[in-house]
Amino acid sequence: MNKKTLIGPFKQLLTMTGLPMKGPIADCELVVLEHAGMLVEAGKISAIGNFTELSEKSKDAIVHRLQGDHVALPGLVDAHTHICFAGSRANDYAMRNAGKSYLEIAKAGGGIWDTVVQTRNASPEELVKGIVKRANRHLKNGVTTLEVKSGYGLSITEELKMLHAIKKAKEVLNVDLIPTCLAAHMLPKDYSGSAEAYLEEISSVLFPKLLEEGLANRIDAFIEQSAFDRAQIRPYFQKAKAMGFEITVHADQFTTGGSALAVEFGAISADHLEVSTDREIELLANSKVIATALPGASLGLGCGYAPARKILDAGGALAIASDHNPGSAPMGDLLTQASLLGAFEKLTNAEVLAGITFRAAAALNLKDRGQLSEGLLADFSLFHTNHFNEILYNQGNLKPCMVWKKGELVFNKHKG
Fold first, then answer.
1. Which of 26, 80, 200, 407 sits a CA distance of 20 to 30 A from 346?
2. 386 and 284 in a common domain
3. 77-93, pLDDT tens digit by residue?
């Protein structure tokens, strides 16, 4: 028999329900419950309402009574990360800030290939250890669902090593890991054939293994001059779709074209979008593709943000993710990055919070989280404050004091 747990009272509980998937959201549209309680059973929310009334109706429940003021938010969803890697690219960061170009850094031994070499040299155990360490840091920052990409292996064997490491890490973590295959990150320097031949090999050999071993049901590709163009990726995506994979795209980071391909293939999301123009924004807004802004990459590279305000005003669905990776986005703090994006792009608090909760869940095609409502996963974070506006106002400096995953308390700041 599953135990019932009553948690509360919360000073405020933001349900993030009743809000549109696309377009702008005003702060006045947020559903904010005062003196609320949450009844949890079998990892899901069985009721939300007035704490006193729930106490009277659920006398058989175990009560987790909170002391002081707490604001409850749905567990954050980080829909785009690269936290499976080895090594550091601190030298790249220093060179970039000193004015060196991407090509100059690559010629000096930096860039993506540097991480590929270090990741290939790492043992599976080292990769698992790194994933667990970074994922737990995200969890303490309120992230209860975390997408993780491969893409630093760039061969059949090494991509499998990465995806097995992600699967292994998932077994020991309280945060949900959503694996994505990014074997089309760039053409490996040690591959003797053409880009077309490499993609054909990956899709013919690796794709079936992903399905057989349950390693990933999502395929990503980097559409960029330094990686693959649309003509090269089109057959790759065609095969992925035919095999039942979901598609996501690294799009419009330095040049446009990727978001158009994302719309063409009905991708779940198009991520980056720093250089998207009005044409790309219109395409995305008139599609079901979730536009995912990655402010961490803008901060890491010192470039402009994705046009988040324009995307929303055009009627698009905006998610916000950290892009946590060793090269362009080493910070990996979703709440800080989302707060800064909100300030620079003039997003309402409701739009920012939607972008890291239910709209981010949609970017992973997950319908059981991102909101606090009966029947959904009991994933939520508590902030020791008396008003939800304080969370973004502190720009990531106000961290969760408790994090709950599937109804279990998995992080308590007061207990280490």
1. 80
2. no
3. 999 999 999 999 999 99
- CATH number reported for the structural domain that contains residue 403 in this entry: 2.30.40.10
Q: Which domain holds residue 176?
A: 77-362
Contact 408, 174 (CB under 8 A): yes
User: Is the Cα dihedral 195, 196, 200, 203 positive or negative?
Assistant: positive
pLDDT digits (tens, 9 = 90+) for 239-256: 999 999 999 999 999 999
CA distance 87 to 71: 37
Q: Are residues 287 and 404 in the same domain?
A: no
What span, in angstroms and rounded, lies between the C-alpha atoms of 52 and 54? 5
Neighbouring CB atoms inside 10 A of 223's CB total 26
Residue with tokens 């991102």: 370
Question: Do the beta carbons of residue 150 and residue 166 sit within 8 Å?
Answer: yes
pLDDT given at position 416: 55
User: At 379, which amino acid appears?
Assistant: D
Q: Is the dihedral of CA 254, 256, 259, 261 positive or negative?
A: negative
230 residue type, one letter: R
What stretches of 42-84 adopt beta strand conformation (E)? 44-50, 62-65, 71-74, 76-78
The residue behind tokens 């699967």 is 167
Q: Residues 191, 266: one domain?
A: yes
CA distance 84 to 149: 7
Neighbours of 295 (CB within 10 A): 27
- Considering its fold, how many domains does the chain have in total? 2
Whether the full predicted model's pTM is greater than 0.70, yes or no, is yes
CA dist., res. 85 & res. 29, Å (int): 40
Angle value at C-alpha 31, between 29 and 36, nearest 5 degrees: 165
Residues 287 and 152 in one domain: yes
User: Angle, nearest 10°, between helix axes 112-121 and 156-170?
Assistant: 70
Task: Work out the angle at residue 55's Cα, subtended by the Cα atoms of residues 50 and 56, and round it to the nearest 5 degrees.
Answer: 105
Residues 157 and 257 in one domain: yes
Q: Strand, helix or coil at 100?
A: coil
Given this model, what pLDDT does residue 101 score?
85
Provide the residue type at 268 as one letter.
Answer: I
- 320 and 388 together in one domain: no
- Report whether 341 contacts 273 (CB < 8 A): no
Do residues 75 and 407 touch, judged by C-beta distance below 8 A? Answer: no
- How far apart, in whole angstroms, are the C-alpha atoms of residue 182 and residue 221? 6
On whether the CB atoms of residues 122 and 155 are closer than 8 A, the answer is no
Distance CA 21, CA 213 (A): 33
